[in-house]
Design goal:
By secondary structure, the protein is an alpha/beta fold. It has eleven helices and 14 strands.
Length: about 300
């Protein structure tokens, strides 16, 4: 049985006139970068605030590190919800010193964290003069005080230019690979999440539509050859006998073939020779965006 570092069971939050989070069951394993994706207003931020204890659920349970002693285990979580609150007229080091009063951390810890997020050489430059990407990375640095095992980041690249997005993305990857930090990251920017995510949670109108690994998602979105013909069973046998059918599935009365796509002409000729009428032969590509739109609607 899988062990999860964050797990929710029927987690629900209601506001007047709206169910913001509707019986959500999330499963996040240690070491994952869990991409929480959905439109603006889908319930991502509310779910994160429930996990962090910033809101109280109406129904459901939250389990952290396999326990339900949430007050103690929440100390192992760092977070950046929406825009980081920074002291504008002091250096990054001084910002960190002030937050260390709350969360702990020596001067050496602060220097190490700033180095880790790429802000070790900012000197006396005021945080208010930082670029948006630098401010987000400083927000992540603050979240790292106390050496948390999980970081929860809400839209960490929202509003950033391409350079700022790359800075934040590289920081997340570095923390995950070098420190083993588990991430729960929300975003509505699918292309950016796809570059780092190991597991996706798709949320729409408060409901968790699906959880799927990045590997499985890539397989589902791979190029495929759809073959619709007069005799599916016979087509399967013929193509297998000629080693042209390895990765495939039968779906909606059609063969969906995931390899040998470049041999579509040979496949067609072989089926016709064996008196199998080919009604449709088409190469399909389901992009990531199309996949998500199918699940959350337009």
């Amino acid at each position: 049985m899988e062990e999860y570092i964050i797990e929710t069971n029927n987690l629900t939050k209601k506001f007047p006139g709206k169910v913001a989070v509707d019986h959500v069951n999330m499963h996040i394993k240690r070491g994952e970068i869990y991409g929480f994706i959905g439109r603006n207003g889908a319930g991502k931020t509310t779910a994160m605030k429930l996990i962090l204890g910033l809101l109280k659920p109406n129904e459901g349970e939250i389990t952290l590190f396999g326990n339900k002693n949430l007050n103690e285990d929440r100390k192992k979580i760092g977070s950046l919800i929406e825009t980081p609150s920074l002291y504008r007229n002091v250096s990054a080091f001084e910002v960190m010193k002030r937050y260390a009063i709350l969360f702990g951390g020596s001067d050496e810890d602060i220097k190490d964290i700033l180095e880790l997020v790429g802000l070790g050489d900012t000197g006396k430059k005021h945080a208010g003069d930082f670029s948006l990407g630098m401010k987000q990375r400083l927000g992540i640095a603050i979240a790292l005080l106390g050496n948390p095992e999980i970081l929860i980041l809400d839209e960490p690249v929202n509003g950033l230019d391409p350079a700022g997005i790359k800075e934040v993305r590289d920081t997340i990857i570095k923390l995950n690979e070098e420190r083993g930090v588990t991430f729960l990251i929300s975003s509505h920017l699918l292309d950016e999440l796809a570059k780092i995510t190991t597991t996706y949670g798709i949320i729409n109108e408060g409901k968790l539509v699906e959880e799927v690994s990045a590997k499985e998602l890539m397989e589902r979105c791979a190029h495929n050859l759809k073959v619709r013909c007069s005799d599916i069973s016979k087509a399967e046998k013929v193509l297998k006998d000629h080693k042209l059918l390895n990765r495939y599935e039968v779906k909606d009365d059609a063969l969906i073939i995931y390899d040998n796509i470049e041999k579509s002409g040979e496949i067609n000729e072989l089926l016709v020779k064996n008196k199998i009428v080919v009604n449709e032969l088409a190469v399909n590509t389901t992009g990531l965006e199309d996949y998500f739109i199918e699940r959350i609607g337009r």
